[in-house]
């Protein structure tokens, strides 16, 4: 595996090129470093390389990893959040990308107001309509925006999507373009700003940036193939000793 600083320089160059091609400023795009299945050592290395925002997809995994990691990073939840994990999630994460039901919005608001947290939330939109994916169908989003705007503790800042996994990342482009168009429509309809677009992963972040992504969620391209559950259990056991 090449040194992370070298990989990061290359990714930043790709980002800058994608921004240039689409007339955007590279300042508009930030990397969310996805450390799921990696241990606190990887978090530390990434933090030292200059990454500041980290993504995890499971509350339980984050609950042991975050306290063991360097303090300073901003932690984002990018995976499905179960209602019974909302309280734990709000203790760990300042931003939740994967809000996918109105019930979850209400539950987040109720716990956040109780604990005095003010999380930033994004609504996950299932643009491609794949049944295996979570997220709101586009037509369900206006009701969710209304519900989120009625919440005093939550700040709705944008939208998130996952493109279908396709061999050629160009095939994911229409999904990213569609999310941006939907965002523009809802901004107009509600007279609000939804500045964050969380879209693009290791294999498709370039078209995502060209189509307006502000947060790209990168795991594999930065940290290599993810370790197995067995490796993770070992890291966890080591951390508990
Ligand atoms: C794992 C994960 C990522 C990162 O995926 P890579 O392909 O490793 O970059 C991004 N978003 C979500 C929601 C994930 O679960």
Fold and architecture overview:
It is a single chain. The protein has an eight-stranded parallel beta sheet. The radius of gyration is 18 Å and the shape is globular. With 241 residues, the chain is of the alpha/beta class. The protein contains ten helices and eight strands. 44% of the residues lie in helices and 15% in strands. The protein has one domain: Alanine racemase (TIM Barrel), CATH 3.20.20. The mean pLDDT is 95. The longest helix has 18 residues. Bound molecules: pyridoxal-5'-phosphate (PLP).
Topology summary:
Layout: H1 4-21, E1 30-34, H2 40-48, E2 53-56, H3 59-68, E3 74-77, H4 86-92, E4 95-99, H5 102-115, E5 120-124, H6 141-149, E6 155-160, H7 173-190, E7 196-198, H8 205-210, E8 215-218, H9 220-223, H10 229-240
Parallel strand pairs: 1-2, 1-8, 2-3, 3-4, 4-5, 5-6, 6-7
The chain binds pyridoxal-5'-phosphate.
Residues 34, 36, 57, 78-79, 162, 201-202, 217-221 line the site of pyridoxal-5'-phosphate.
């Amino acid at each position: 595996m090449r040194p992370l600083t070298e990989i990061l320089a290359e990714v930043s160059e790709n980002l800058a090129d994608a921004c240039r091609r689409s007339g955007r400023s590279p300042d508009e795009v930030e990397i969310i470093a996805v450390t799921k299945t990696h241990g606190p050592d990887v978090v530390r290395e990434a933090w030292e390389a200059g990454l500041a925002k980290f993504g995890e997809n499971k509350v339980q995994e984050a609950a042991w990893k975050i306290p063991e990691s360097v303090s300073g990073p901003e932690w984002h939840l990018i995976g499905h959040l179960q209602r019974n994990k909302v309280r734990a999630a709000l203790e760990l994460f300042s931003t939740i990308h994967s809000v996918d039901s109105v019930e979850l919005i209400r539950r987040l608001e109720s716990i956040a107001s109780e604990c005095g947290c003010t999380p930033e939330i994004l609504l996950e939109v299932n643009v491609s309509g794949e049944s295996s994916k979570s997220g709101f169908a586009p037509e369900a989003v206006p009701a969710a925006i209304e519900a989120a705007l009625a919440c005093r503790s939550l700040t709705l800042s944008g939208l998130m999507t996952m493109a279908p996994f396709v061999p050629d990342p160009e095939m994911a482009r229409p999904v990213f373009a569609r999310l941006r168009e939907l965002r523009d429509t809802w901004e107009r309809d509600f007279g609000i700003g939804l500045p964050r677009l969380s879209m693009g992963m290791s294999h498709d972040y370039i078209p995502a940036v060209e189509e307006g992504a502000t947060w790209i969620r990168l795991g594999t391209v930065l940290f290599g193939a993810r370790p197995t559950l067995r490796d993770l259990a070992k890291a966890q056991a080591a951390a508990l000793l």
